[in-house]
Amino acid sequence: xxxxxxxxxxxxxxxxxxxxxxxxxxxxxxxxxxxxxxxxxxxxxxxxxxxxxxxxxxxxxxxxxxxxxxxxxxxxxxxxxxxxxxxxxxxxxxxxxxxxxxxxxxxxxxxxxxxxxxxxxxxxxxxxxxxxxxxxxxxxxxxxxxxxxxxxxxxxxxxxxxxxxxxxxxxxxxxxxxxxxxxxxxxxxxxxxxxxxxxxxxxxxxxxxxxxxxxxxxxxxxxxx
Length: 225
Prior knowledge:
By secondary structure, the protein is α/β, with parallel strands linked by helices.
């Protein structure tokens, strides 16, 4: 049983979905503290002028959990859809997905994690990723850092924990080994592909790849070991 874990994000980059695709279970960390100026409420796309942030305005306190983080106003939805339309209307695969994005950006959603989950679920469906999704808040895991990851893995019957390289700094590898859980580190390498606006810009939201690249090519990247 391969398990991976990551905080809820808005329109994550391709490497985020690659880790999900190569797992049996993916745990969405919605029950952890919101990180200001991170990518939980923003990500980058591009137009002919270069890359730029799409940011969801949020309200509340600095110690809010992600699952409780409220969206500050409704104006962002119109702005985000207009920005995507202007940037990608001429992209080869924009029309394959535009109806969904238009509908979602017109819906009444008030919590950040609901937006993130809606986008993530849709992209997983479009790319035929069958990985089981688990919300951390549903299972009431305990602990911090390595202890939290261990609790998640033990509860889910994990044999292999698929982790990003950033976790090397805090994971207690000996403890995992003693529990019979293998740790595999996956480097977050995003793909290089053709973009309609010219010279390649790396590390954008997967939306940029989705609108520019055929599904088979994306799936080949996601499933490459």
